[in-house]
Amino acid sequence: MKNLQFDLKKAFFNKRLGIAEHRQFLILEMALELIQKKGFEQLQFGELAKKCKISRSLVHHYFKDKLELANSLLDLSTLHLQNYVQTSLAKEKDSRLHFQIYCKATLDWAAEHPIEATGLLLFIYLSSHNLEMRRRNDQLSALGRQKIKLLLTQAGFTARIDSNAHIIQTVLTGCYLILLSENHSIKESLQLRSDCLKTCLAVAVSK
Amino acid sequence: MKNLQFDLKKAFFNKRLGIAEHRQFLILEMALELIQKKGFEQLQFGELAKKCKISRSLVHHYFKDKLELANSLLDLSTLHLQNYVQTSLAKEKDSRLHFQIYCKATLDWAAEHPIEATGLLLFIYLSSHNLEMRRRNDQLSALGRQKIKLLLTQAGFTARIDSNAHIIQTVLTGCYLILLSENHSIKESLQLRSDCLKTCLAVAVSK
């Protein structure tokens, strides 16, 4: 876990890590924890500063307002997910199996990392009314479909590839949302993920 | 449209409509409009009162705080969706076709009534961190699955009915979310809905 955190920090800032970077990362992690407990609506820079044991003005120094913070939270959550998926893919050399692994890892991530996943849920919600977020959502969503299309091609599925990639993304999004917004036992969560994975595979082969 | 509004109001309050009920309904409609434009986070009772041309204290008289308002918005959105779906189902006498109509109507509702649908999206988001909302979400979600199971049975699909109902609900939720949080042309929206509907039908027959 420590290593993943360190790699994430490096990838997030894309430069040598100084005290400023460690602090910003701490603020983002604490913000995600607060949001998962109370929601973005209730998040206040004062409480966030207290949780980080730094001054409120220092939080404001790094993040002008809540929307800027939300944008960085999205970066962190996206990077966390990508890191998780890439780690899963790296273990399998046969690229024909990468589509399946990608789908499974995406769903497992939401179940195993609810705090980081809450950043993506916040983003989807904000995209419903904030135009800047919506633009980013459109871009990220298009990138996601590109990735799914590539993996489908590698797996040998080429029929109806645009439509199928879009449906697969829809199934993953729906499952992800349900995992984060409803109570499930571990058994129910595993069952739902397994069923959704099977559905993605069935969609992949449909013509 | 006027009739639907009137029926909704009657169903919402479940009693004779006086000035108080008309006012509360107006407040909820205006709140949904504001939320769709700026988000729940930015919604303020002062602005809402101004939009309704009533006093701020009157808004507070009907809705103690934003969470109480959110609960009523959920009631209104749910009722609006149910009304839309029931109207579609009532046009078809053959109950074997009701499953398909239900899925189509649910997706069309999200595309055609984004303002009312935003109430459900807010609810899903709030359910990720608010325990009271999450309990309501669990209940509503279970009711939704019951309904899907009933429609599947009427359509003659009985294999793997619990799992399949859950997957179908997941596909509908995912499509709904994507329709509300991304920009689509009308053509793209129709294509996605049609593809998701086909996927629901494919899941229904899967064993």
Task: Describe the SSE topology.
The structure is a homodimer of 207-residue chains.
Chain A: H1 2-13, H2 19-38, H3 45-52, H4 56-62, H5 66-90, H6 98-112, H7 114-127, H8 131-154, H9 161-181, H10 186-205
Helix pairs in contact in A: 1-5, 2-3, 2-5, 2-7, 3-4, 5-6, 5-7, 6-9, 6-10, 7-8, 8-9, 9-10
Pair with the biggest interface: A-B, 46 and 46 residues
Total number of beta strands of chain A: 0
Number of helices of chain A: 10
- CATH H level of chain A: which superfamily? Tetracycline Repressor, domain 2
Q: How many domains comprise the coordinates of chain A?
A: 1
Looking at the structure, the CATH topology of chain A is Tetracycline Repressor, domain 2
Return residue spans of chain A where pLDDT drops below 50 for at least 5 consecutive residues: none
Shape of chain A: elongated
* Relative strand content of chain A: under 5%
What attributes characterize this protein structure?
0% strand; mainly alpha; Tetracycline Repressor, domain 2; homodimer; 207 residues
Can you give a write-up of this model?
By secondary structure, the first copy, chain A, is an all-alpha fold. Chain A has one domain: Tetracycline Repressor, domain 2, CATH 1.10.357. Chain A has helices at 2-13, 19-38, 45-52, 56-62, 66-90, 98-112, 114-127, 131-154, 161-181, 186-205. In chain A, helix 2 crosses helix 3 (45-52) and helix 2 crosses helix 7. The first copy, chain A, is elongated and about 55 Å long. The mean pLDDT of chain A is 92. At the A-B interface, helix 2, helix 7, helix 8, helix 9 and helix 10 of A face helix 2, helix 7, helix 8, helix 9 and helix 10 of B.
